[in-house]
Amino acid sequence: MEQGMIDRTLADLIDMDDSATVLKEVKAIFAMMFPDSECDMVEKVFYDIQRLFKGDYPGYRKCTTQYHDLKHVTDTFLAMSRLIHGAVVSGEQLSSAQATLGLICALMHDTGYIQTIDDNTGTGAKYTGKDTTRSIAFMDAYITDNKLPIEDFTHYADILICAGLDTKVSELHFASHQIALLGKMLGTADLMGQMADRTYLEKLLLLYAEFREGEITDYKDELDLLKKTKGFYERIKERLSSELGGVSDYVQYHFKVRWNIDRNLYTEAIESNVNYLNYILKNHEKDYRRHLRREKIMKRLKKRGEDVGG
Q: Which residues touch 81 (CB under 8 Å, ≥6 apart)?
């Protein structure tokens, strides 16, 4: 293996901040799996979701949540495509229609945070805890409005429900092994995508603002959320391996075939974030904001008038 490949991190592979680049990569991955199938439906939904989050979709306001934003959607979308590809490479039998359904569910999974045009109170964060059921309702309406072939979308709700952090996936009944697999992959992609984001720690401060509006009372301030994130990571590792069936391992098959990198780059990125969080909490607890400086998120917080917390 070339030295350059050995040293590459998740963020080095493609520009994940550019949604067009993400779509191009997902289409390339789809073509690797199904060279004789088109990706047109996924592409159409991608552009509709982009319009939705940007405020150009009829009947809806632009996205008002800064943690659960379009970037998070595209991160989940890309992670889902990598999981599906890795599963196919490892021998799982998934059809192009099933892969299409999984990718569309990834695009749809946080539509529940988007407010309708006449909903002018607060932000979409007020729907925290109800977002998954609202996402299912949005996708249901989308399928009807766009006259999509219902036979291809029969089990979308069973997949989307797996994005709920409290969903007991092991207790759900799925119509097939493939639908169960797609559900577990969506729950996994959602978690991996956000926690591996190079701005994850900065965005946790935006998440705290969402939690306050959503009346989530588990955290007394930003610093408390950062401190409890260490324990959250341990719970997530357990959820990924047990409740979600360990399907996170499939990404390593993807990286081996696509990039000739025989490592789980998502796990590495997440652990890098957690290690830096531990460093901050150990050495800079009193001025933690000074050590969270990526992507000018702190300026966004000040612009919004968020207090420092802690």
A: 25, 26, 29, 30, 103, 106
Positions of E strands within 29-147: none
Q: d(Cα 298, Cα 271) in Å, to the nearest integer?
A: 23
14-47 pLDDT tens trace: 999 999 999 999 999 999 999 999 999 999 999 9
In b/e form, how buried is each residue of 63-84, taking b as 16+ CB within 10 angstroms? bbbbbbbbbbbbbbbbbbbbbb
β-bridge partners, 173: none
Domain boundaries, the chain: 14-304
Is-above-0.85 flag for pTM? yes
Q: What length is written for the chain?
A: 310
Rounded CA separation 116/296 (Å): 29
Helix ranges restricted to H, 121-219: 131-145, 156-160, 177-195, 200-213
* Annotation: CATH topology of 14-304: Catalytic domain of cyclic nucleotide phosphodiesterase 4b2b (1.10.1300)
Write the CB contacts of 134 (distance below 8 Å, at least 6 apart in sequence): 111, 112, 113, 127
